[in-house]
Design a protein that fits this description.
The complex is a heterodimer of chains A (about 300) and B (about 250). Chain A is built from 14 helices and seven strands. Chain A has about 300 residues and is mainly α. Chain A folds into two domains: about 150 residues, no CATH class; about 70 residues, Alpha-Beta Plaits. In chain A, strand 3 and strand 4 form a beta hairpin. Chain B is an alpha+beta fold and about 250 residues long. Classes of the chains: A mainly alpha (about 300), B alpha+beta (about 250). At the A-B interface, strand 4, helix 4, helix 7, helix 8 and helix 9 of A face helix 1, helix 3 and strand 1 of B.
């Protein structure tokens, strides 16, 4: 089977990695809006632009936004949050359901900058072995543990130790040792302990978003007819278990909620077989794994 | 979907439960940080279980027009991430519209709180050994700066040893003091002689069995005696002077 070459215009590195560039811009922009509003007093229409932090915030003094997992912990702890917090968490929940998967983790969470850096450095230094091995589903158990601890203690338990909360709180409201220890701890774990240790195996917030992200609408669509099974997407994927080509072909898209919608697979695919799109537009392909289509080295 | 047999399923179930239990217990211990004993003045309108309710989002910090509030870092004297203030740096200026309370999404600051004079952020406490007024100087700066002066903070004459002149000393009424800390902020001594302390730690409670009959807001009538009262007793004024009548009240 002949394999079409990509058009020359789309082969630039910037275009190839456009989603990674966009992710960095979004991450830094949101963080910048929080910091600018808190420390420099940025306003728009006479209202604070984006006050608060990633736990709870207020856009233009009007639209509430809240972390739904934190609200869930509060409900387990039998607290009664204000209506704004309930509404805010629903807005956030719906937004990330539309955006799909763990988009929050890849596109917004500041800890992602730290863990992506650790992963990059791991590649550069050639660190391949994991000192610690934990199943990636351990995070679901930890999330359940966090909810149970909230119920028993009457405190939103994970919020007291969440390293990303330490990081964003102190980035926005003033640096302290909390952000430093959380960042270095997670960085060291991801660099030396295990690949993608925090985000990919332990973080209960990520587990929450994986669960919600299952029904996500925007997903990486997989066009099996273009795939030549080179598996570059699987090697680059921070959650390799979600890139099962057989499942992806049968569904027409990456179905697992643990998928970050980070777009790395799109960047590395030499065949443009993966593109972001609505899950309804997926083209399932049942015969993909049986065919020897495109297997150049077979 | 990978097929699992019963043995594998049981193993995964036990492992998952184990991880959930261990991480839950671990978090349970760490979440005790919410009950930390260290204390700093809170924003006004704080619920009783403030630090367990607070989501540490900083909206109150942003809403405060005086930059009074800050979120606690490791080593600060409030539970990590919760808002507090240092009166000596920036006190609470007691905004009548209480903007910090209005934005709290978590229920840690009670939304129905609207009278800033009812705030009880802490209580002012004076150290007479370093207070200038107590040394006989006419300082009275705290009195002049107190936003609820003559209610929360009064000046009272106090005899001064052998001298025939009295001194005027500041006296706090804890029932009216909001704990705003303006007195602490304005105190001219090197280290403030008036400070905001935790009401729970500092204030006592008389107990209902003491009857301060000479106060206007206290009932003059004692609780009815738990014995049959004769018609003759009823006719007498209450609080009878039984000692003069040489009667045994029991």
């Amino acid at each position: 089977m002949s394999i079409e070459k990509k058009p020359a215009a789309s082969t630039g590195r910037g275009y190839q990695w456009r989603y990674t560039i966009a992710r960095r811009l979004v991450q830094l922009a949101i963080l910048g809006l929080f910091i600018g509003t808190a420390r420099l007093g940025w306003t728009l229409f006479g209202q604070p632009l984006l006050s608060g932090d990633f736990s709870s915030s207020l856009l233009l003094g009007l639209i509430p936004l809240s972390d739904p997992f934190a609200v869930l912990q509060k409900l387990c702890a039998l607290h009664t949050p204000e209506l704004t917090m309930i509404v805010g968490s629903l807005i956030v929940l719906i937004a990330w359901i539309v955006l799909g998967g763990r988009s929050f983790c890849a596109w917004m969470c500041p800890m992602n900058l730290v863990t992506d850096l650790a992963d990059q450095l791991r590649t550069v230094l050639g660190i391949k072995s994991d000192m610690i091995r934990i199943h990636q589903n351990a995070r679901y158990a930890i999330a359940i543990g966090a909810l149970a601890a909230s119920a028993v203690s009457g405190v939103a338990a994970f919020e007291w130790v969440s390293p990303q909360a330490y990081l964003w709180r102190e980035l926005v409201w003033g640096l302290g040792w909390g952000a430093a220890s959380a960042t270095f701890g997670v960085f060291a774990l991801d660099l030396l302990g295990m690949r993608r240790g925090w985000c990919g195996h332990l973080c209960p917030l990520g587990a929450f978003w994986s669960t919600v992200g299952k029904v996500g609408i925007i997903r990486p669509l997989f066009d099996a007819s273009k795939c030549d099974k080179c598996a570059k997407c699987i090697r680059i994927c921070p959650e390799p278990h979600v890139m099962g080509l057989k499942d992806a072909a049968e569904n027409g898209f990456v179905k697992s909620g643990a998928c970050l919608n980070c777009g790395r697979c799109i960047a590395v695919c030499p065949q443009d077989a993966i593109q972001f799109g609505l899950r309804f537009n997926a083209k399932p392909n049942q015969t993909f794994m049986n065919s020897t289509q495109g297997e150049r080295n077979a | 979907m990978v097929k699992t047999n019963r043995r594998e399923f049981l193993q995964i179930a036990v492992q998952g439960t184990g991880i959930a239990a261990c991480s839950g217990l671990g978090l349970l211990g760490l979440a005790r940080g919410a009950h930390s004993q260290s204390w700093a003045p809170r924003p006004p309108g704080a619920a009783e279980n403030f630090s367990t309710l607070c989501m540490k989002c900083g909206l109150c910090v942003k809403a405060c027009p005086y930059d009074t509030l800050k979120l606690a870092k490791l080593g600060d004297r409030a539970p990590l991430g919760t808002p507090f203030f240092e009166p000596r740096d920036i006190p609470c200026y007691m905004c009548p519209d209480v903007p910090c309370v209005k934005v709290c999404p978590s229920g840690a600051l009670k939304r129905d709180f609207d009278d800033i004079k009812k705030a009880r952020m802490g209580v002012a406490v004076i150290d007479p050994s370093s207070c200038l007024s107590w040394q006989g100087l006419r300082c009275e700066v705290c009195y002049r700066d107190c936003p609820v002066k003559d209610e929360a903070l009064k000046l009272a004459p106090h005899p001064r040893g052998l001298s025939k002149h009295a001194v005027f000393v500041p006296v706090i009424n804890p029932n009216k003091c909001t704990g705003c800390g303006l007195c602490t902020w304005s105190c001219p001594t090197q280290k403030p002689a008036i400070n905001i302390l935790d009401r729970e730690t500092f204030l006592g409670h008389i107990g209902d069995h003491y009857r301060l009959g000479w106060l206007e807001d206290q009932p003059h009538d004692p609780a009815p005696l738990k014995r049959p009262i004769s018609r003759e007793d009823e006719a007498k004024p209450t609080g009878v002077d039984y000692l003069n009548n040489m009667e045994d009240p029991l």
